[in-house]
C-alpha cells in the first residue's frame, strides 16, 4: 500500500489475541448436556403425539413440536458463536509514533451516507464529518465523501459552512489533543477535557455556524446572501424547479481539496467531497447499497484510497486514534492477503439507563461477534467498518476487472475537468446496467440488510474480517427512541435477513459448503431469526388459551418432565444472562433485552415475514425506511423515564396487546381456580407450567398494561388498539369452540 517503493514494515506485533480455554470448554460441555435435554424433549413430544386420541390434543402437541423444533434449530445455530470466542487487543500508540516519523501511511477514503434532511438533521451530519476530518492521521491522506441520497441543497450548504469551521476546528483539536472531536459532543460534555481562551472563541464560532445553518434549514432554501462566489452559485443553481430527491442530475462538489485548502495554521485539510448521484424514476437506485457503490466509483476517480471507512450519517468518531487502531490489522503482512474488513461494534449515545428497546444489541454487536471472530470474523454492521478497497472486487484470488480498479493511479487533480467528468459519468443512474455492480462487485443488491448480505458474500469468496472492540467506543450513533421506530428498523432487518436465508445462496446449504459448518450456522442464525416469531406466538397464546378452557398442555404428574422443562428454560435464560453480564452489561439491560425478544416475536418478525412473502410473490415491495435521528423533546423525556412510546395506530402493536391481555386474564382465571378447588387437585398442579408461562409473560408485559391503563401522555397506547385487540382475542378464543363443534366432521376426512 502507499507509494510504489515498498515502505519498511511497521513494528510488530501490532495486535494480539486471546481465547479463554475455560469459557470455551464450559460452552462445549454445556452445549452437550443441553443437546441431550433437547433430544429427550423431542422423544417425549413424539410419544405424546402418538398417544393422543383427540384432534384438539394432537393439534396442541403438533404446535408445541413445531415451536420447540424452531427453538432447537436456533439454539443449535447459536452454539456456533460459543465454540471459539476470541478477544483482541491492538497497539495504536506504535503507529502514532510512526506518524511523527513521516511513515508512509495508506490513504483512507471515508464514506458517509445521508438521505433525508428531515429525519437526519444536517447539523448532525456535519458533526460526524468534522469528527472524522480531525482524525489523528496525516491530513493529506484522508478524504471524506458524503453521499446525499436526499439531494438536498441544505445538506450541501451545511457542509460548506462546516468546511469553513473546519479550518479552525481541526488545528484546535490537534493542538490541544482533544479526544471528543465532534464539536457538539465536545461543547456539550460537562466533564470537559479542558477549557481555555481558545475554547471560548471556537465555541462562539461553532454556535454562529450552527445558527446560520439552522436558519437556512428553517427557511427551507439557501438564500442568495449565503452563496459566495461564482463557483458556489453554479452548483446551487443545479437545484432547479424540476429537481426532486427521486429525479435529478448528479451533483458533485469538491468542498475542500487537500492540495489547495489550508487551515488557519497553514496546514492542509482533508479532501471533502459532496456527491448526490443521479436519480431517475426509470432506474432502481438500490438505496444505501447503490449510494455506497456510487461512492466507491466516484472516490476511485479522485483518490482511490486502498482503505475505506463506511459510516452512517449519525455515527461520529469518539476516538481520534481509531484509524491507527484499524491499521494495526490492515498493515499486518500476515493478515493482509485475505483481510476484507475490520468491524467496530456499533455503540450508541443517549441510550436510557436500562436500554428499554434493547437498542445496544449487545448480543449482535459484541457477544456473537467475538464468537465469529474466532472463525472467519464478524459480519458487516453497515457502519464503523474499515474495508480494504480490494475486497469489493472479487475474492482474494480472483480480481474482477474494472477500469477504475483498486490499482488505478489517479493522475489528475480532484477539481480538474477530466476527473470531474469521469466522476459524473460513474455516478450516473444507468452506469451499472449490464455490469457486475451489486452482484459480484461492490455492495451487493438483493437484501434490505445489504450490510449483512455483503459480508456473507465476501466471506463466501474467501475474505476474512476482524472485530476491533476497544474499551473506548470508536464511534457513537443514535438509537431509536420510540417503540415504532425500533420495531420498524427490526422489521427491515427481518425482511433483509429472510431475503438472504431464502435466496439461491442459502446460508445453510451454500453457506456451510463455502465457509464451513460453524460459520455457516452463524449466518443461518441471523438469516432465520425471524422464525423465532413462530415459537414465541405459540407460547404466548396456546398454553394460556388452553388453560382458560381447562385443558392441560403439559403432561400430568411426570416429575422427570417437569425437571426437563425447568432445566431447558433456566439453562437457556441463565446462560444468556451470564454472557450479558460478562460483556459488561447490567441485569436491567438484560431484562429489557429478553423482553424485546418476545415483543419482536409478536410484532416486527411477524410483519417482516408477511412483507417478505408479499415481496417474493411480487405483490408489493417495501423500500429502505430510514430510521429517524431527530430528538424530539417530549419524546426524549419519556424515553429517559423509560416509558414505552406507543402513541400511534399500527397493526404492529396489536398482537402484543392481545398477548398482554390474554396472559393476564389467564393468570387471574388460574388463581381463581386454585382458590376454589385448592392445590390438591392434580389437574391444576399439572397446569402449573401454563400458569408459570402466563406469569412470566405478564411480568414482561408490564409496560403495556401501564400504557393501556395508567398513562395519559402522548405515548400511551391508543384506545383503538386496546379495543381491536380485545375483539380479535375473543375471536381467537372461540376457535377451540368451533373445533370441538365441528371436529366430528373433520374426522371424516
Ligand atoms: O436510500 C437510502 C437509505 C438509507 N441511506 C443511509 O443508510 C444509513 C442507514 O440508515 P438508517 O435509517 O440509519 O438505518 P439503521 O436501521 O439505523 O441502520 C442499520 O441497518 C442498515 C441495514 O438495514 C445498515 O445499512 C446500517 O448501517 C445499520 O446501522 C443512513 O446513513 C442513511 O442515510 C441511504 O444512503 N440511502
Ligand atoms: Mn442508523
Automatic annotation (TrEMBL):
It comes from the Eukaryota. InterPro entries: Cellulose_synth, Nucleotide-diphossugar_trans. Keywords: Cell wall biogenesis/degradation, Glycosyltransferase, Membrane, Transferase, Transmembrane, Transmembrane helix. Its main location: membrane. The keyword Membrane applies. The active site is at 149, 451. The chain crosses the membrane at residues 20-43, 55-77, 536-554, 560-581, 602-624, 652-675, 687-705, 717-739. Mn(2+) binds at residues 288, 312. Gene3D superfamilies: Spore Coat Polysaccharide Biosynthesis Protein SpsA, Chain A. The keyword Transmembrane applies. It is found in: Endomembrane system. GO terms for molecular function: cellulose synthase (UDP-forming) activity. GO terms for cellular component: endomembrane system; membrane. UDP-alpha-D-glucose binds at residues 119-120, 149. It is a multi-pass membrane protein. GO terms for biological process: cell wall organization; cellulose biosynthetic process. This is Cellulose synthase-like protein G3 isoform X1.
Amino acid at each position: 500500500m502507499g507509494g510504489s517503493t515498498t515502505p519498511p514494515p511497521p513494528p510488530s506485533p501490532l495486535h494480539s489475541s486471546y481465547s479463554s480455554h475455560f469459557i470455551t470448554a464450559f460452552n462445549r460441555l454445556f452445549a452437550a448436556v443441553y443437546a441431550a435435554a433437547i433430544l429427550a424433549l423431542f422423544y417425549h413430544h413424539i410419544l405424546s403425539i402418538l398417544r393422543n386420541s383427540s384432534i384438539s390434543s394432537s393439534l396442541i402437541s403438533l404446535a408445541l413440536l413445531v415451536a420447540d423444533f424452531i427453538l432447537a434449530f436456533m439454539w443449535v445455530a447459536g452454539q456456533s458463536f460459543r465454540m471459539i470466542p476470541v478477544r483482541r487487543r491492538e497497539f495504536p500508540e506504535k503507529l502514532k509514533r510512526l506518524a511523527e516519523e513521516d511513515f508512509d501511511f495508506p490513504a483512507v477514503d471515508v464514506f458517509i451516507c445521508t438521505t433525508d434532511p428531515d429525519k437526519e438533521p444536517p447539523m448532525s451530519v456535519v458533526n460526524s464529518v468534522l469528527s472524522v476530518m480531525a482524525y489523528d492521521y496525516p491530513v493529506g491522506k484522508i478524504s471524506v465523501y458524503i453521499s446525499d441520497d436526499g439531494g438536498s441543497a441544505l445538506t450541501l450548504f451545511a457542509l460548506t459552512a462546516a468546511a469553513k469551521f473546519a479550518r479552525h476546528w481541526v488545528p484546535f483539536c490537534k493542538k490541544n489533543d482533544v479526544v471528543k472531536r465532534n464539536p457538539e459532543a465536545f461543547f456539550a460534555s460537562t466533564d470537559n477535557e479542558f477549557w481555555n481562551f481558545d475554547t471560548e472563541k471556537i465555541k462562539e464560532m461553532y454556535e454562529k455556524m450552527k445558527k446560520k445553518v439552522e436558519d437556512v434549514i428553517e427557511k427551507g432554501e439557501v438564500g442568495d446572501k449565503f452563496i459566495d462566489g461564482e463557483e458556489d452559485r453554479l452548483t446551487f443553481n443545479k437545484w432547479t424547479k424540476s429537481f426532486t430527491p427521486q429525479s435529478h442530475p448528479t451533483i458533485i462538489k469538491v468542498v475542500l481539496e487537500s492540495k489547495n485548502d489550508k487551515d488557519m495554521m497553514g496546514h492542509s485539510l482533508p479532501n471533502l467531497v459532496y456527491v448526490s448521484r443521479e436519480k431517475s424514476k426509470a432506474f432502481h437506485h438500490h438505496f444505501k447499497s447503490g449510494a455506497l457503490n456510487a461512492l466507491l466509483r466516484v472516490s476511485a476517480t479522485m483518490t482511490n484510497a486502498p482503505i475505506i471507512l463506511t459510516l452512517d450519517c449519525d455515527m461520529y468518531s469518539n476516538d481520534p486514534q481509531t484509524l491507527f487502531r484499524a491499521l494495526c490489522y490492515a498493515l499486518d503482512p500476515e493478515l493482509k492477503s485475505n483481510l476484507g474488513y475490520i468491524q467496530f461494534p456499533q455503540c450508541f449515545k443517549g441510550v436510557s439507563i436500562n436500554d428499554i428497546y434493547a437498542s445496544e444489541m449487545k448480543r449482535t454487536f459484541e457477544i456473537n461477534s467475538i464468537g465469529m471472530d474466532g472463525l472467519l470474523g464478524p459480519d458487516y454492521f453497515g457502519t464503523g467498518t474499515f474495508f480494504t478497497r480490494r475486497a469489493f472486487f472479487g475474492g482474494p484470488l480472483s480480481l474482477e476487472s474494472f477500469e477504475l480498479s483498486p490499482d488505478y493511479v489517479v493522475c489528475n487533480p480532484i477539481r480538474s475537468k477530466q476527473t470531474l467528468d469521469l466522476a459524473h459519468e460513474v455516478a450516473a443512474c444507468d452506469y451499472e446496467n449490464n455490469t457486475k455492480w451489486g452482484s459480484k462487485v461492490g455492495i451487493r443488491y438483493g437484501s434490505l440488510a445489504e450490510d449483512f448480505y455483503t459480508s456473507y458474500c465476501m466471506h463466501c469468496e474467501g475474505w476474512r474480517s476482524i472485530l476491533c472492540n476497544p474499551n473506548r467506543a470508536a464511534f457513537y450513533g443514535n438509537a431509536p427512541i420510540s417503540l415504532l421506530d425500533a420495531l420498524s428498523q427490526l422489521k427491515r432487518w427481518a425482511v433483509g435477513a429472510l431475503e438472504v436465508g431464502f435466496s439461491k445462496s442459502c446460508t445453510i446449504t451454500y453457506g456451510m459448503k463455502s465457509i464451513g459448518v460453524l460459520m455457516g450456522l452463524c449466518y443461518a442464525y441471523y438469516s432465520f431469526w425471524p422464525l423465532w416469531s413462530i415459537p414465541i406466538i405459540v407460547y404466548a397464546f396456546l398454553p394460556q388459551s388452553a388453560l382458560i378452557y381447562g385443558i392441560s398442555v403439559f403432561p400430568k404428574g411426570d416429575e422427570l418432565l417437569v425437571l426437563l422443562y425447568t432445566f431447558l428454560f433456566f439453562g437457556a435464560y441463565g446462560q444468556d444472562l451470564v454472557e450479558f453480564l460478562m460483556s459488561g452489561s447490567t441485569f436491567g439491560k438484560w431484562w429489557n433485552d429478553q423482553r424485546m425478544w418476545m415483543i419482536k416475536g409478536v410484532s416486527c418478525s411477524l410483519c417482516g415475514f408477511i412483507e417478505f412473502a408479499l415481496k417474493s410473490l411480487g405483490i408489493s415491495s417495501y423500500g429502505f425506511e430510514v430510521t429517524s435521528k431527530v430528538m424530539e423533546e417530549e419524546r426524549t423525556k419519556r424515553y429517559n423515564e423509560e416509558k414505552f412510546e406507543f402513541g400511534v395506530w399500527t397493526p404492529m402493536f396489536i398482537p402484543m396487546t392481545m398477548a398482554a391481555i390474554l396472559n393476564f386474564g389467564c393468570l387471574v382465571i388460574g388463581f381463581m381456580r386454585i382458590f376454589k378447588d385448592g392445590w390438591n387437585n392434580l389437574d391444576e398442579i399439572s397446569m402449573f407450567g401454563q400458569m408459570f408461562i402466563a406469569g412470566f409473560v405478564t411480568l414482561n408485559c408490564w409496560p403495556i398494561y401501564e400504557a393501556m391503563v395508567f398513562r395519559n401522555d402522548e405515548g400511551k397506547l391508543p384506545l383503538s388498539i386496546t379495543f381491536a385487540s380485545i375483539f380479535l382475542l375473543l375471536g381467537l378464543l372461540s376457535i377451540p369452540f368451533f373445533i370441538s363443534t365441528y371436529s366430528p366432521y373433520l374426522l371424516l376426512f
